[in-house]
């Protein structure tokens, strides 16, 4: 560990909020070392007009930051955990999962209308295969358009009239003080969130015991258990690529529940699985894998393969 803890982060408004939040939590600990932020551009930032589903793999917002971490240029990497690959680079560890914010997706419409009340043929913007699939299931008449850029940019494009509505993560909007723009919170039963949505993940070098010790104090047990199950589910299903999958783990007392859905991109077919397990890391991972096997047994493999072939999303 260096004398100053260097946090690697993207420079978007949301990424900086998350990095500053982690920095503030570290500074609040008695005896903590000084903390500074290091801005790093990622592939996802540089290719801001390419649809996310065309950028193979899942590490397009994290790879460069994790490389800087491995090379010793920074000591900590702060990510939206939903952007982080299920298999971390060798030598790195997920040292903390922060308390989960609202995991739901939110609809923002120009008129304030909810999803069901949007006019027929409404133009809805999103960059996510998962959101496109569940939008197509709920509103098959809608025009689903690509939407890239950071959160404020996406909101500006909505307000300029390029879209009738857009879908964003509720947590990001709330963190940036933009929740007043939300027209509707989308129910997780019909519109399941992305794996780990709402959770900030903090990575460090596995061999850097002092830094890992500081970060371990920030780890939230409920978030760790829920995302362990969700990420195990995704790891079994995805093989490294985006898939139209929504999942949400929830800890209630000593029981962890997990619900998951895979949906075809045209919305015509959806597969669901649900289960519970005792509250423990091994049991959480086993729960995620078990539900993935159920989905695969019900035909998820063929559904996912068809979506990849249709959109030329290649496994890395």
Explained architecture:
This protein is α/β, with parallel strands linked by helices and 316 residues long. It folds into three domains: 1-99 and 199-219, D-Maltodextrin-Binding Protein, domain 2, CATH 3.40.190.10; 105-185, D-Maltodextrin-Binding Protein, domain 2 (3-Layer(aba) Sandwich), CATH 3.40.190.10; 221-316, 2-Layer Sandwich (Double Stranded RNA Binding Domain), CATH 3.30.160. 34% of the residues lie in helices and 22% in strands. The chain is built from ten helices and 13 strands. A hairpin with a 6-residue loop joins strand 12 and strand 13. Helix 8 (221-238) runs parallel beside helix 9. The relative contact order is 0.15. The mean pLDDT is 91.
Tell me the layout of helices and strands.
Elements: E1 5-9, H1 13-27, E2 35-39, H2 43-46, H3 63-71, E3 76-80, E4 92-97, E5 105-109, E6 123-125, H4 129-138, E7 143-145, H5 151-159, E8 165-169, H6 170-175, E9 184-185, E10 200-205, H7 209-216, H8 221-238, E11 245-252, E12 255-263, E13 270-278, H9 281-297, H10 300-311
Parallel strand pairs: 1-2, 1-3, 6-7, 6-8
Antiparallel strand pairs: 3-10, 4-10, 5-8, 5-9, 11-12, 12-13
Question: What's this model, at a glance?
Answer:
The chain has 316 residues and is an alpha/beta fold.
């Amino acid at each position: 560990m260096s004398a100053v803890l260097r946090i690697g982060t993207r420079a978007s408004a949301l990424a900086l909020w998350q990095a500053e939040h982690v920095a503030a939590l570290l500074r609040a600990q008695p005896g903590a070392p000084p903390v500074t932020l290091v801005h790093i551009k990622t592939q996802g930032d540089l290719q801001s007009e390419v649809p996310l589903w065309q950028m193979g793999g899942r590490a397009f917002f994290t790879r460069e930051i994790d490389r800087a971490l491995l090379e010793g240029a920074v000591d900590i990497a702060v990510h939206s955990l939903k952007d982080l690959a299920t298999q971390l680079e060798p030598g790195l560890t997920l040292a903390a999962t922060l308390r989960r914010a609202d995991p739901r997706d939110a609809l923002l419409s120009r008129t304030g209308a909810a999803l069901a009340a949007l006019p027929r043929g409404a133009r809805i913007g999103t960059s996510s295969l998962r959101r496109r699939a569940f939008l197509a299931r709920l509103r098959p008449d809608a025009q689903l358009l690509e939407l890239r850029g950071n959160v404020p940019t996406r909101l500006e494009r909505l307000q300029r009239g390029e879209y009738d509505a857009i879908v964003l993560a509720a947590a990001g909007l709330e963190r940036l003080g933009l929740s007043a723009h939300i027209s509707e919170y989308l129910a997780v039963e019909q519109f399941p969130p992305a794996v780990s949505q709402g959770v900030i993940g903090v990575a460090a070098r596995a061999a850097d015991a002092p830094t890992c010790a500081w970060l371990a104090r920030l780890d939230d047990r409920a978030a760790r258990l829920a995302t362990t199950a969700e990420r195990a589910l995704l790891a079994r299903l995805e093989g490294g690529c985006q898939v139209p999958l929504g999942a949400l783990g929830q800890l209630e007392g000593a029981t962890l529940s997990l619900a998951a859905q895979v949906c075809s991109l045209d919305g015509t077919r959806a597969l669901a699985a649900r289960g519970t397990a005792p509250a423990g890391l091994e049991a959480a991972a086993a729960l995620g894998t078990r539900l993935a096997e159920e989905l695969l047994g019900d035909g998820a493999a063929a559904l996912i393969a068809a979506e990849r072939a249709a959109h030329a999303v290649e496994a890395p």
